């Protein structure tokens, strides 16, 4: 049978597409194939088209949908996360943010493509917003049955990261409530009564990498080490790293141990996030990888053992990207693509749920992580 056709909107590097692309028939053929994608960032589009079929179109989706010369192809599944900054708690001006309305364009593509299923992802705050109710109402008016929005934890699906994403699934065929959310593959180690392997950790993801070299992209060293470079921190930054050597330490520990090298703004701010200038734990999943993970002042991004921030390669692994996935662009652009991506391993498990919806439960899980379709009754 032909693979199911996917469209990926606001695609970034293609983490969502990669998860669906990873599902293969037992004969090795893909069960999903991208037929169209879109992003307004050129480097992200280049990354997408390098790793998949070159179907990603550069441009503003609003303008694309107003251009009569551009035809949206037919698809079975539409994926994507309309830019989430409008819902994020980090956005202090989120009321009235025009990016909140990009879901309209997303649903327009769903309509034009005649897709049977859509999967929308966003920050968990979306589920408490008025826009969420509008999205559901719009989808139901279009004939979709919509599952109650679910917040999925990436670590529950084999990603070494405690990233939380809101997922909304709508379908015109079958009953999505039977197959979504996807069955968890890993468990919080504190919940020992569940017969699943424990969450993967930072150690699982990056332990076998050597110490990084240089401060620039390393194309001469192959895919794995190309992104494994360091920074050139100031002497005072190096002193700060060494002042908090233990896993889990953060800016408050720095202030307690070495107030003389602690930024005054932190000393004056007695409360606030405990992740700033924090060290990751070796035997826990990472915190959420964001777009500036190479700046420890932005979050808990110090290596658990070494006195440095994590590298681009380490961040990509924590996001569950394979080493042979090639990112295009500058160091800053690649970091943005890594931090903005849907973790591919999370997307792969969502893809399994979508497969079961499309086949009414006849997509069978195989021990070798391949899938077969039993289409006979």
Give a verbal description of the structure.
By secondary structure, this protein is of the alpha/beta class. Helices cover about 30% and strands about 10% of the residues. The chain has helices at about 15-20, 40-50, 60-65, 105-115, 130-140, 200-205, 220-225, 235-245, 250-255, 265-270, 310-320, 330-340, 345-360, and strands spanning about 5-10, 30-40, 55-60, 75-80, 115-120, 145, 150-155, 165-170, 365, 370-375. The strands form two sheets. Strands 1, 2, 3, 4, 5, 6, 7 and 8 form an eight-stranded mixed β-sheet that branches. Helix 1 (about 15-20) packs across helix 13 (about 345-360). The model has no long low-confidence stretch (mean pLDDT about 90).
Radius of gyration: 21 Å
Supply the number of structural domains. 2
CATH architectural name of the largest domain: 3-Layer(aba) Sandwich
Structural class comes to alpha/beta
Sum up the overall morphology in one term: globular
Key traits:
377 residues; alpha/beta; Rossmann fold; DNA Methylase, Chain A, domain 2; 8-stranded mixed beta sheet; two-stranded antiparallel sheet; 12% strand
In short:
It contains 13 helices and ten strands. 43% of the residues are buried.
């Amino acid at each position: 049978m032909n693979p199911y056709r996917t469209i990926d909107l606001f695609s970034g590097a293609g983490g969502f597409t990669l998860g669906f692309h990873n599902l293969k028939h037992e004969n090795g053929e893909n069960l999903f194939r991208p037929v169209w994608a879109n992003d307004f960032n050129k480097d992200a589009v280049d990354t997408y088209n390098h790793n998949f079929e070159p179907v990603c179109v550069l441009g503003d989706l609003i303008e694309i949908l107003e251009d009569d010369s551009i035809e949206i192809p037919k698809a079975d599944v539409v994926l994507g996360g309309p830019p989430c900054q409008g819902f994020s708690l980090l956005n202090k001006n989120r009321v009235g943010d025009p990016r909140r309305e990009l879901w309209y364009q997303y649903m327009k593509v769903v309509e034009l493509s005649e897709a049977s299923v859509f999967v929308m992802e966003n920050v968990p705050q979306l589920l408490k917003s008025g826009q969420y109710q509008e999205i559901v109402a719009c989808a139901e008016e279009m004939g979709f049955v919509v599952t109650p929005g679910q917040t999925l934890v990436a670590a529950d699906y084999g990603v070494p990261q405690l990233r939380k994403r809101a997922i909304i699934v709508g379908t015109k065929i079958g009953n999505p409530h039977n197959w979504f959310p996807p069955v968890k593959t890993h468990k919080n180690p504190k919940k020992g009564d569940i017969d699943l392997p424990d969450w993967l950790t930072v150690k699982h993801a990056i332990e076998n990498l050597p110490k990084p070299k240089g401060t620039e992209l390393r194309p001469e060293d192959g895919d794995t080490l190309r992104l494994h470079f360091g920074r050139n921190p100031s002497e005072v930054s190096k002193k700060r790293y060494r002042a908090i050597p233990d896993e889990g330490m953060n800016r408050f520990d720095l202030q307690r141990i070495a107030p003389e090298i602690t930024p005054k703004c932190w000393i004056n701010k007695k409360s606030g996030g405990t992740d700033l200038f924090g060290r990751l734990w070796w035997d826990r999943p990472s915190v959420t990888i964001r777009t500036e993970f190479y700046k420890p002042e932005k979050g808990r991004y110090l290596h658990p053992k070494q006195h440095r921030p994590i590298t681009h390669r380490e961040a990509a692994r924590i996001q569950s990207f394979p080493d042979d996935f090639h990112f295009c662009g500058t160091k800053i652009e690649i970091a943005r693509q890594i931090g903005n991506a849907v973790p591919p391993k999370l997307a792969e498990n969502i893809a399994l749920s979508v497969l079961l919806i499309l086949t009414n439960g006849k997509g069978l899980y195989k021990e070798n992580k391949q899938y077969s379709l039993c289409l006979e009754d």
